Amino acid sequence: MKKCPYCTADIPVEAKKCKFCGEWVVPAGSTTSEPAELNRTVQPPTQGPAKPCPYCSALIPVDAWVCLYCNRGVIGGRPLAVGMIVIGAIIAAIFFFGLWLPGWMDMQKKHNEFDQQWNRTNLEQEEFRKLHFPGQ
Q1: Cβ–Cβ under 8 Å, residues 61 and 76
Q2: By the 8 A CB rule, do 59 and 47 touch?
């Protein structure tokens, strides 16, 4: 086993291409290298801030969703934030429309029924007072 010069992964000695980062490597004992058009650089394509890919350690732009070299999704950054916001909104909607809103509507209905019964009882008491205690 030898180390890939680009991503430092362990690869077989006779390997021509790293299976982790996709870079062409020179096999041990060989003096010829691959054609220049097949070699890729590990430098980011932009001059902005970069971060290492968690899978192949290549430098990629900070706001990348997919690694430019190994084509794997990069967890973190904007995709994670967007996903968390969407999940939070879904949970809030389920709570609001599935749990809180029906309970609130039932409570409003019970409050209205109680208010009607309270008003009816007050009227009955007032009529009773007028009937049985006319001077007060």
Answers
A1: no
A2: no
Q: Report, in angstroms and rounded to the nearest whole number, the Rg of the chain calculated over CA atoms.
A: 36
Q: What is the CA 116 to chain-centroid distance, rounded? A: 48
Place of tokens 């290492």: 52
Q: What is the pLDDT of residues 70-87, one digit of tens each?
A: 888 776 656 667 788 899
Nearest to 78 by CA among 97, 66, 65: 65
The Cβ of residue 114 has, within 10 Å, a number of other Cβ atoms equal to 10
Half-sphere exposure of 36 (CA within 13 A, CB side): 0
Residue 34's pLDDT is 47
Contact (CB, 8 A) for 22 and 32 = no
* Residues paired with 51 in a beta bridge: 60
